[in-house]
Structure formats: structure tokens, C-alpha cells
């Protein structure tokens, strides 16, 4: 038994280094409502369907209390609708700028395809949003074999497993243990665990790290080691089976997982789950 398919996240994993496109829009729409958010708050639910992300933000105790104070009532579904209606057009307007693949993505995926692996993708974006990103990424040379968005699985995005299952179906991948999911958020790891596939977290370019490419390049060796260790710890505690520093390490990690499979190890026997 060997790995046959890889399911990749988009923003923060394969494109949009640092996952900044949605972050800025979330911060802007909440600030305009009179409830400024911290970067940590915005990034915590990252990877979810964007409407679910807004709900998760409003459910956070500090934000929920701030809403109660400002509006003298609890938030409603109508408030989520209004915020999402403001979020979507703004994100759509800037997404064409965020389709450039992250370092090592194009050549690594080409190599894995040459080795016969199928490449799928999942996301927190809707089909409308991802169509823009996918078109831009394709111009740079990155194109998965198939991609699935939450609205294609009845809005059951992460942490549900259905986007992974739909990729497996479309790509002809038969066994969970022969599939790897790579992502840059806790919800990516949860999605992989829900589907019973191997979960790999990526550090550089990730929403978890939350730094621009220039900021990462200016880290001292000690700072880089500290950041990689901190992000890796968060992934592993969430149920990841492995962590890679960047996409260039993925082929070697696939080989390591193949060895684990040869030793009869399965992803859903993960002790962290």
C-alpha cells in the first residue's frame, strides 16, 4: 500500500503566502461595524467556509460581548448574512492578486504528478472565489487535477470530510490510508482527521505562522527555529501526523508515510485523535 493522492489546501498552502487576502477583509468589515479584531482572533477559524468563519468570530466570548455592548442585543443570522454580503464582493475584488503559487509549489507538484500521484484540492472559498484564484494560479503553472469547494458539498466545509471524499471520488482514490491532506490551518488538520486520511501541516507561508515572505526571510536562525517548533506543536496537538517546513519537503514526507504504511501504520490510528 502506497500513497496515491494528495489533497492540498489553497490560501496559505499553495498560494497567497501568509494567507492575507481573507484576513484583511475580515478585519475591515468588523472594524467598520465598530468591533476591531486582533490578528489572532481572525486567524483562529481560518480554513472554514467564510460564512462559518464569520459565525465562529461572532461566537468568540470577547467579540460576542463587544457586539452585545454595542448593539444591546445578541447577534442573529441576519447579522451573519449582512457581514457575509459585505465580505464577499471585497474579497472577490482582490483575489486576482493572490493566485501566485508559494515557493516550491509548482516544481513539487509537477514532480509528484510525474510520479503518478493524483492532486486534489479543498478550500474555505466558494466556487466563485476559487475560480478566480485557480485561474490566476494556472497562469503561473499550478493546476491540481481536481478541486472541491464547500458549496459543492451542500456547504459542509471543514471540519467535515466531504470535500476530501468528493476529491477521492473524482480522482478514483480508493482507500483513505493512501491519501494525504496538506494544509496550513487547524481546520485543515480536523478535515483530514474527519476523513481518516494522513494530515500534514505546512509552516512557511501558512496562516498559522501569519508572516509575509519578506518577514520570514528576515528571521534569524533562532527565530525561525522557534517559530517552526511553535507552529509544528500546534499542528501535532490538533492531530497532524507530520509537519513540513515548506512544499519542497513534501516528496520526502510522502516516502516516509509510505514506509509507515509498509509497517502497517494507518492514519486513523493516530494517538492524537
Largest sheet: 5 strands, parallel
Helix tally equals 12
Q: Could you estimate the helical fraction of the residues in percent?
A: 40-55%
Using the alpha-carbon principal axes, give the shape: globular
How many strands?
Answer: 5
The averaged pLDDT comes out at 96
Secondary structure category: alpha/beta
Kindly report how far apart the N and C termini lie.
23 Å
Q: Strand sequence of the main sheet, in spatial order?
A: 2-1-3-4-5
β-sheet strand percentage: 5-15%
Low-confidence stretches: none
Helix/strand order: EHHHHHHEHHEHEHHEH
Gyration radius, in Å? 18 Å
Molecular structure report:
It is a single chain. With about 270 residues, the chain is an alpha/beta fold. It is built from twelve helices and five strands. It has helices spanning about 20-30, 40-45, 50-60, 60-70, 75-95, 105-115, 125-140, 160-170, 185-195, 215, 220-240, 250-260; strands spanning about 5-10, 120, 180-185, 200, 240-245. It has a five-stranded parallel beta sheet with strand order 2-1-3-4-5, sandwiched between helices.
Brief digest:
With 273 residues, this protein is an alpha/beta fold.
Amino acid at each position: 500500500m502506497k500513497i496515491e493522492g494528495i489533497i492540498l489546501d489553497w490560501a496559505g498552502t499553495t498560494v497567497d503566502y501568509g494567507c492575507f487576502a481573507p484576513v484583511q477583509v475580515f478585519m475591515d468589515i468588523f472594524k467598520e461595524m465598530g468591533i476591531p479584531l486582533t490578528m489572532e482572533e481572525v486567524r483562529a477559524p481560518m480554513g472554514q467556509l467564510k460564512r462559518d468563519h464569520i459565525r465562529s468570530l461572532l461566537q468568540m466570548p470577547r467579540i460576542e460581548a463587544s457586539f452585545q455592548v454595542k448593539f444591546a442585543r445578541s447577534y442573529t443570522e441576519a447579522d451573519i448574512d449582512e457581514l457575509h454580503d459585505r465580505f464577499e464582493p471585497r474579497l472577490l475584488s482582490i483575489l486576482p492578486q493572490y493566485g501566485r503559487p508559494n515557493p516550491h509549489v509548482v516544481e513539487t507538484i509537477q514532480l509528484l504528478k510525474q510520479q503518478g500521484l493524483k492532486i486534489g484540492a479543498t478550500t474555505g472559498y466558494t466556487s466563485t472565489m476559487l475560480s478566480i484564484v485557480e485561474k490566476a494560479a494556472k497562469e503561473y503553472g499550478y493546476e491540481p487535477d481536481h478541486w472541491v469547494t464547500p458549496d459543492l458539498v451542500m456547504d459542509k466545509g471543514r471540519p467535515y470530510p466531504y470535500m476530501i471524499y468528493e476529491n477521492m471520488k473524482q480522482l478514483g482514490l480508493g482507500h483513505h490510508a493512501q491519501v494525504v491532506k496538506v494544509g496550513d490551518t487547524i481546520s485543515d488538520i480536523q478535515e483530514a482527521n474527519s476523513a481518516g486520511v494522513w494530515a500534514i501541516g505546512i509552516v512557511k507561508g501558512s496562516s498559522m505562522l501569519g508572516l509575509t515572505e519578506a518577514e520570514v526571510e528576515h528571521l534569524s536562525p533562532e527565530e525561525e527555529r522557534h517559530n517552526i517548533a511553535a507552529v509544528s506543536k500546534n499542528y501535532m496537538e490538533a492531530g497532524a501526523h507530520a509537519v513540513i517546513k515548506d512544499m519542497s519537503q513534501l516528496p520526502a514526507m510522502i516516502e516516509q508515510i509510505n514506509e509507515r504504511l509498509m509497517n502497517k501504520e494507518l492514519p486513523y490510528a493516530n494517538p492524537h485523535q
